[in-house]
């Protein structure tokens, strides 16, 4: 298969972890006879510095015309403490999600047998966890009307959802649930929010189209608690943009390191793959960041193109590296810590 992949390394540790994913993908392509054509493009603070814009039109052109986008991370501390900054790297990410129509963000959480004791949660609580949070990504409070009034002394951000937005996300949720354990949990705040009541009503109306799927409805605050109490109770969850943002960070600690969890963002046409960790500026340029979340995001990419064996091969070598202790410092636990690039080289050579 020939695939054109836009490569958006972005900021902080983005370029380093992306480099490792490219090595691994190239090794897979060689082994399985695929032709990968990488198309690097600017985004984030790196793009602001170069052209004054975090998601330039040239980058969008490359992404729209590519079969998929592999994305590193976005964000730079020099913008974080400057509320007056007019352009911010994160705006690039939001603009990209919106312009590419990436409405469904797929964030799986699973445990690795060799790392189970690295989790801050007890073994018996997390063993067998394999859940997937499907976060709505182009609507809700992230994209609602916002502003200031009262001479700047009142600020508002509005959470708006249309039935159609909920339906297309829920449809994905039902479809994914059908390929897994056929359990779907709609996470909302319907006891308070009108938009959540529309979520519930819409999902309830869709239940009859998927008679095999067992649907439950839970409030987001209760889920925040139960997710760390009994994560293995959950399978597929669907939720609004902001709730999903918060719950997926929470869920990422279950596996033991935020550096492990991959994600995909899916639109009608576009597909983007990215680690869920951020740009981790303290580690930038030091060759110490964990590249596995990005490498596993590349496995999701192969899988979505029907290249299941290729995805399996990536997961096999990742598991092997963890079992053999070829890991970066976040997982080394007093033993030898390998460099980001060494882990990438080891994975590519093991394929
Ligand atoms: C994420 C990030 C982004 C978000 C930020 C960087 C805008 O936290 O992808 O989860 O809030 O969606
Ligand atoms: Mn987030």
From TrEMBL:
Q: What is this protein for, i.e. what is its function?
A: Catalyzes the oxidation of 3-carboxy-2-hydroxy-4-methylpentanoate (3-isopropylmalate) to 3-carboxy-4-methyl-2-oxopentanoate. The product decarboxylates to 4-methyl-2 oxopentanoate.
Q: Source gene?
A: leuB
The species is Aggregatimonas sangjinii
- SMART domains linked to this entry: Iso_dh
Name used for this protein in its record: 3-isopropylmalate dehydrogenase
Q: Which reaction does it catalyse?
A: (2R,3S)-3-isopropylmalate + NAD(+) = 4-methyl-2-oxopentanoate + CO2 + NADH
User: What pathway is this protein said to act in by its record?
Assistant: Amino-acid biosynthesis; L-leucine biosynthesis; L-leucine from 3-methyl-2-oxobutanoate: step 3/4
Report the GO molecular function annotations.
3-isopropylmalate dehydrogenase activity; magnesium ion binding; NAD binding
InterPro entries found in the cross-reference section: IsoCit/isopropylmalate_DH_CS, IsoPropMal-DH-like_dom, Isopropylmalate_DH
- The answer, when asked if Cytoplasm is one of the entry's keywords, is yes
Keywords tagged on the record: Amino-acid biosynthesis, Branched-chain amino acid biosynthesis, Cytoplasm, Leucine biosynthesis, Magnesium, Manganese, Metal-binding, NAD, Oxidoreductase
Compartments, as annotated in UniProt: Cytoplasm
Instruction: Give the classification, highest ranks.
Output: Bacteria, Pseudomonadati, Bacteroidota, Flavobacteriia, Flavobacteriales
Q: Which GO terms describe its biological process?
A: L-leucine biosynthetic process
Q: Which HAMAP family match?
A: LeuB_type1
How the protein assembles, per its UniProt entry? Homodimer.
User: Mainly localized where?
Assistant: cytoplasm
Which residue numbers delimit the Isopropylmalate dehydrogenase-like domain? 4-347
């Amino acid at each position: 298969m020939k695939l054109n992949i836009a490569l958006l390394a972005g900021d902080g540790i983005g370029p380093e972890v992306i480099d490792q994913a490219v090595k691994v993908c190239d090794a897979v392509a060689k082994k399985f006879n695929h032709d990968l054509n990488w198309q690097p493009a600017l985004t984030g603070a790196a793009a602001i510095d170069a052209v004054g814009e975090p998601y330039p039109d040239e980058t969008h052109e490359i992404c729209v015309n590519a079969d998929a986008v592999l994305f590193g991370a976005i964000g730079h501390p020099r913008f974080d403490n400057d509320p007056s900054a007019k352009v911010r790297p994160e705006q690039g990410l939001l603009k990209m999600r919106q312009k590419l129509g990436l409405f469904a963000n797929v964030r799986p959480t699973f445990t690795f047998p060799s790392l189970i004791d690295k989790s801050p949660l007890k073994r018996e609580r997390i063993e067998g966890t394999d859940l997937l949070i499907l976060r709505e990504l182009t609507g809700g409070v992230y994209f609602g009307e916002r502003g200031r009034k009262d001479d700047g002394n009142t600020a508002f951000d509005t959470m708006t959802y249309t039935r159609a937005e909920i339906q297309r996300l829920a449809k994905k949720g039902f479809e994914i649930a059908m390929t897994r354990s056929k359990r779907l949990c709609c996470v909302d705040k319907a006891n308070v929010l009108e938009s959540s009541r529309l979520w519930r009503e819409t999902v309830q109306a869709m239940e009859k189209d998927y008679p095999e799927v067992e649907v439950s409805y839970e409030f987001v605050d209760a889920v925040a608690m139960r997710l760390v109490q009994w994560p293995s109770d959950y399978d597929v969850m669907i939720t609004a943009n902001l709730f999903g943002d918060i719950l997926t960070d929470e869920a990422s600690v279950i596996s033991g390191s935020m550096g492990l969890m991959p994600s995909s963002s899916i639109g009608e046409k576009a597909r983007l793959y990215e680690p869920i960790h951020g740009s981790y500026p303290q580690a930038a340029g030091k060759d110490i960041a964990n590249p596995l979340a990005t490498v596993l995001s590349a496995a999701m990419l192969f899988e979505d193109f029907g290249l299941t064996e290729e995805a399996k091969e990536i997961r096999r070598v990742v598991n092997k590296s963890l079992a053999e202790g070829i890991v970066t410092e976040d997982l080394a636990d007093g033993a030898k810590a390998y460099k980001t690039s060494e882990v990438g080289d080891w994975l590519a050579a093991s394929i």
